[in-house]
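=== Given protein ===
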Amino acid sequence: MKDKLKILITIECYPPVITGSGITTMRIATGLAKRGHQVLVVCPGKSIKPKINVESGVTVHRVRSLPVPKISHQNFSFSAFPRNYIKHIFKEFKPNIVHIADHFFISSAAVSLAKKNKIKVVGTNYFTPYNAIDNLMIKKNSLLYRILEKILWHYFLNIFNNIDVVTTPTATAKKIIQNVGLKKSISVISCGLDIEKFKKNEPGNEIFFKYKIQTNKIIFLSASRLDREKRVDVLLEALSMIKDKIDFQFIITGRGIDKENLEKITLKKNLTDRVVFTDFVSVSELKSLYSISDIFLTASEVELQGLSIMEAMACGLPVIAASSMAIPELVKDGINGFLFEPVNVVDASKKILLLASDKKLREKMSLNSLRLIREHDLDATLAKFEEIYYECVYEVAKTYEY
């Protein structure tokens, strides 16, 4: 039986800051702790004083940090000089392996100290520069856009080309970082999902009353940050084109800098009696919303996997989505949903109307979603990371055996 490991994980955005990478990292850290490993996460805090908490079996060090200029609804922070604090963690915790979930200040310091201490580093990339640049309202393919893109990728490559193992959640994500110059071999490991946790259930009546949900209508659901790259505006435009052909409600969860714009579109397109903005919802409420919905919708242009799509599939929902980035790896066109050309509201409206009008097709696609999501079970993801960790640790032990 292999010894349990001391795993140090670093990330710049960890819950309660809500990002896909943060949620995934939290699930992986918590899952590894449940398997008996000692897991320590280092992330920015919200004050000049560091704080240490044990969260779901994971020791979380929130280091002193500074706020980031607001480019999103999130209150992002960063730690510009974390090296001394992380050096202390290395000395006290003595990790067997370091796992970085980004390439920013904390992770950069951790890589440097791991190299100095002859500890192997695993890095998982959830990064593209497009989320940040899009929220800065910089025109795509402009000179400034291309310069920022190149700078951001440069910093990523500077770290990830100098670690021991690189993983990404999808084949698409792998290809992207290869194309920008990553020279390391790359393993594809799904973000993973506790499928049982998101199985369809019968929610209580309170969810219907709270959001005034009408069960006699087709229920569409969108679950994401309401930032520009998620393109919820495309979904509203598409639904406005078919509002006289089907009776529906569209539930939009989440918060973000684009919410005010989305509310204006809803009013302009006479959809106010069809659209429900829930703002941020708890995990339990989100599961209830998945369970009472008929079809999951997303027009996102920037997805290296798509956690909300995975959650919807685990709840048996067919998905209509933009055919962008890694989404086609989850949504198989004509199998468990439909894909539409990104930003094409006409194409989106046709696909939505087709599926909303055919109950038997929805039932068939629902079963296919349940079947396809099985390969993304969190236990398989954790097992793959454990295998990588042990290979790294035993390689080091063998190297320094004499």
